[in-house]
Amino acid sequence: MSIAYIGIGSNIGSRKENCEKAIRLLGKSGVTIVKQSSMYETEPWGVKDQPKFINMAIEVETDKEPKELLNILKKIEKEVGRTETVKWGPRVIDLDILLYDDLILKTPELEIPHPLMHERDFVLKPLSEIAPDKRHPVIGKTVKEMLNLRQT
User: Fold this and answer.
1) Which is catalytic among the residues 24, 49, 96, 133?
2) Fewest Cβ atoms closer than 10 Å to its Cβ: which of 26, 42, 104, 110?
């Protein structure tokens, strides 16, 4: 079994309910939810002129390979109601694989660790709540260290 960390975000509709529904659906897809962070209301990143987000992170245990896990997340996004919009634009739900064990993977469809996670407080804050000592396999710093660097 592998341990993965997934970032969750929503800024359209019932944001908290969208996040909760995505977690329920993920739990029904053969993935075990191990830990769940609090929900954080955050400012939009990238495209500023849009509603605030609810962001959180979860730790999951899975026997799914990364590509299969990504396919499950994309299916759940559609089921919750996500449609394609502009990059970094508003969305009903966004599910991202942040880390998967200590894997380093770069394909056209998927990059692990998530390439921008270390630059985003809305990822690092919830992730530091559930995995402060998890080390980024490329940068070499823990989640807590990366967050502290952003806040200084």
Assistant:
1) 96
2) 104
Which one of the listed residues 49, 63, 91, 120 is annotated catalytic? 91
* 120 tagged catalytic: no
Tens digits of residue pLDDT in 68-82: 999 999 999 999 977
Is 82 a residue of the active site? yes
Task: Identify the active-site residue in 24, 49, 63, 94.
Answer: 94
Name the residue ranges covered by the structural domains of the chain: 2-116
pTM of the shown model: 0.93
CA proximity to 55, closest of 125, 1, 116: 125
What are the CB-based long-range contacts (under 8 Å, 24+) for 105-108? 105/66, 107/67
Note if 91 is an active site residue.
yes
What is the rounded distance in angstroms from the CA atom of residue 142 to the CA atom of residue 99? 12
Question: Is residue 129 within 8 Å of 115, Cβ to Cβ?
Answer: no
Question: Domain 2-116 adopts which CATH fold?
Answer: Alpha-Beta Plaits (3.30.70)
Upper half-sphere CA count for residue 77 (Cβ side, 13 Å): 22
